[in-house]
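Researcher: Let's run the pair from yesterday's discussion. Sequence first, then tokens, for each.
Model: Starting with the first of the pair.
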Amino acid sequence: MSESPIYEGILQQAEARAEEILARARAEADEIVAEAKSKAAEAAESERRNTSVRLEGLHMKEESAVRSLERLEELKNNDAAYSAVMKRVSEEFDAFFRSPESRKTLVSWIAQAAYGLGQSEARVSWRMGEKVDESMLREAEKILEEKTGFSVHLHLNPDSHISDWGVMLSSMDEKVYYNNQLDVRLRRMSRDIKKIIQESTCKAE
């Protein structure tokens, strides 16, 4: 017995409906998959960018740390070089001021200190072991008079010796001083000495 036209029509409609539902389900599934892939790609790209930024940050920190270490090492080397130079300079001056050749230098330092003090009269103190005498004071006075027009009368101060090579000048009432000792002069020049050492180190590299 053949199927009735009504039954066949219902069956065809059911199949068509099923195909329609299946097609819509496939389309929705494709959209879901596509959206999931898009979000996954966006998440992966975002993570890649974030990772790249973090790596760049770490790289910059590493470079900064390396530069800091290099700078610290450079400063240590420069400090060590400066200490070595100062030690050598002190040794050289120690020998120099024990020799007769130091006389001219001391006269010059006395004149400089007298001009810096700016008093019409001053007392001159020196280190035990240095040879400072009246003739040196007269020479210093003459140098100042001839080169600057500044007139001063200097006196030896044998009762007040200083701790380092060089001289210390004071006003007659000892209220004003001008320190022209070796250590002070070297400290005044420390910046220039360090610059020379640094430039020498850079050239050596």
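Model: Moving on to the second of the pair.
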Amino acid sequence: MYQLLAIFIDVVCVGVIFVPVFWFVCGRALWWESKRRMCLLLCFGLYLAAVFSVTGMPDIRSLVFDPAFHFLPFVDVVNSPFSYTCNSILNMILFVPLGVMTPILWEKFRDLRRIALLGFGVSFFIEASQIFTFRLTDIDDLLMNTAGAVLGFLLLRAFCKKDGKRLLPEENQNEKRKKEFGIMFGMVFALMFLVTPFLSGMIWEMIL
């Protein structure tokens, strides 16, 4: 319960800044183009904030260099199979929305190989950043996150085929739209790193 509350507070702290800033940077033009797509973009930004919160990304207040690596995959399944299985499933579920939302929003991610690379890249960024926390950089997390993104994409593709729908077409993608993912990822990470620790700290002081 405490962890869910912490994630919620982090997402709210990001949202109160991210939503108006993204609206100012990209949203005004996108709103008239597609209200549904704009809302989905904002939801995707908040999802990224939740992912960063769950995975314990470093922030400016708690930055510390403490590398700890686990390079051998699937070893823990022998030592604690139940805990390992639960953790692996949660890591997969965490990245399923990435595999669902990115193909809907961006045409360039409507390919299984690219989704796998995206899931791997995002997870690798998170795992690499954890050398600046007290968390473990774990290859199992990297593999399960990637598998979750792939699973999300396969579920979306299966759903679209079942209903006779195509993935939402995005012809005429301009240069601004092609840069959206990078802009959103950078904005959310910057807010989580620089701003959220101070805002969330104030909220926790009021709660406690």
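Researcher: Give me one sentence on the second I can quote.
Model: The helical segments are 2-33, 35-54, 76-79, 81-105, 112-129, 139-162, 175-178, 180-207.
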